[in-house]
Amino acid sequence: MAALSLDPRLSPQMGKKFHQNGVNIEKIEGLIKVYNDGRVERPATVPNVPCTVASELDVTAKDVVLDKFSNLWARLYAPSCPAGKLPLIIYFHGGGFCVGSAAWSCYHGFLAELASKSGCLIMSVNYRLAPENRLPAAYDDGFNAVMWVKTQAMSGASEHKWWLCKLNFSSLFLAGDSAGANIAYNVAARIGSSNATLLKPLSLKGMILIQPFFGGESRTGSENHAAQPPHSALTLSCSDTYWRLSLPLGANRDHSWCNPLANGSTKLRGLQLPPVMVCVSETDILKDRNVQFCTALVNAGKRVETIVYKGVGHAFQVLQNSHLSQPRTKEMISHIRDFIRQ
Question: Which of 23, 89, 190, 260 has the most crowded Cβ, counting Cβ within 10 A?
């Protein structure tokens, strides 16, 4: 059954993408429909799954509530028998800010395997979705998730000792794919603009941005010309729809949350950012924009590791929609493991 919610603020502004008179005005087939009366419908195309993890991975997973008032929760993954203290990856799922869940089967499988193979703790954050909660709601949830970890680290709460006792406080990473990578970047930027002692006793060691979801009013070559398979995870029209639904009302795709390079890259130099690994997919429409972002970071003096995965498209590591997905996913997990162990 599809999830149904209501946002009365949507009705006058959402516009003319489909028919008026009570039918959907924004639609991404199989994922989301938004109606001009404010209703939002998300078909259950991808199943939600419980915390069960295959025994051979030797990982324990549990759901935890971070903020009951905003319904912010996360799924924690912890290797059962670590050799020592472990890094923590705070992870944000993709979905154009509009769809997705930490309980989606594709994310649960990918992150359980990542925790097992890379030897790290993972907290997968279930943030609020647009258009009911437009940006910066997801950024606020991401920041609050980080601060929740800090609070638990300081208090040593007994109900969280099952994972806190394994945590290396000096080895925190922010990560995500697609819109989740955008969230990770913006949360890191917010942390970097704050007091240097904000995270203590935690220390932000790096970012892992997988196919980060950025955009702009001007199209890139890959947005215009990248050949997409029939069931691509991200087409240009889908990308535009996600941005219309998630950006503040009245904003265009050159808003800084969508296009961090819109006003040149000079402001990047002033950002306090940790080392970053950016994972780019060769056939992704975002490829050129991702590479431009990496180049701008390097020119701003940031430490950047860029890896291009050949022959695969957007979200291959969770959708497994290509014969190359499985070997490329293994490569990605190996690269992430190496990055967090530096």
Answer: 89
Give the side-chain half-sphere CA count within 13 A for 134.
Answer: 17
Sheet holding 304-309, edge to edge: 59-67, 72-79, 121-126, 86-92, 167-177, 204-210, 276-281, 304-309
3-class secondary-structure state, position 32: strand
Active-site amino acid positions? 178, 284, 314
- Residues 17-50, buried b or exposed e (16+ Cβ, 10 A)? eeeeeeebbbbbeebbbbbbebbbebeeebeeee
Q: Is residue 12 scored above 70 in pLDDT?
A: no
* Contacts with 127 (C-beta within 8 Å, 6 or more apart), sequence order: 72, 92, 137, 138, 141, 142, 145, 183
Spell out the residues 6+ positions from residue 78 whose beta carbon is closer than 8 angstroms to its own.
59, 60, 61, 86, 115, 121, 162, 163, 166
Task: Tell me: pLDDT of 4 over 80.
Answer: no
What integer pLDDT is reported at residue 227 of this predicted model? 82
Contact yes or no for 239/31 (Cβ under 8 A): no
The sign one gets for the Cα dihedral 147, 152, 154, 155 is positive
Give the pair of three-digit tokens for residue 181: 């990578």
Q: Which two tokens stand for residue 36?
A: 């001009």
Residue 57's contacts (CB-CB under 8 Å, 6 or more residues apart) are 112, 113, 115, 116
* pLDDT recorded at residue 21: 53
Please give the Cα distance from 305 to 139 (Å, whole number): 24
Is the pLDDT reported for residue 111 higher than 70? yes
Token couple for 56: 């051979």
Give the count of beta carbons closer than 10 Å to the beta carbon of residue 254.
14
